[in-house]
Amino acid sequence: MPKLEKVELMVTGGKASAGPPLGPALAGKGINIGQIVSDINKKTSDMEGITVPVTVLVDVENKSYEIKVGVPPSSALLKKEAEVELGSGKAGSMTISALTIEHLIKIAKVKQENSLGNTLKDVVKELAGTCVSLGFEVEGMHPKEFTKQVNEGKFDKQINAETIVLTAEKQKEWKAKVTKLKSDFEKAKVAAAAAAIAQVTAPAETTVAPTPAK
Asked: Domain 4-69 class?
């Protein structure tokens, strides 16, 4: 029976290194840390920039190892597809980016095994819920309206076909939409910051007492 030691950690997809947290966690186990780093980066290359859960099973007797890559959080996958690093931070009042049904189906296929949803359609609706908190539109509408239309069967064709590739025309329209939303979001942030500064620096109103009558 091999003696296995399990090391669980979070790494940045495609950018693991021999430094912390990976290096110290594997030090002293008699295995080639550089090779493990290389193998992890190969396995996570399609998740570049995303925090990914990774488990390294080390056979300390045979000096061998096995790498298992977990599924990143839904929010991380959605932000990657939406081409933003952060959500809007003001869900419900500010929209920062947009996704399509194809994006959600693509992520749903990755998440389905670990999701509470019974069907791909259920997982798509779960992801739409996460889009609410991130400040993303889906198919040009608020995620709640999108979910309503999913329930009505308006996207059954794409979901049943597991469509994950946008047509050239839709890709162009989506790119333009994302660019505009991101630009509008940055302008709104600047305007809000300026308004806040103006409010703080504005002179306080003074009330002049009436002159007593003689």
From this structure: alpha beta
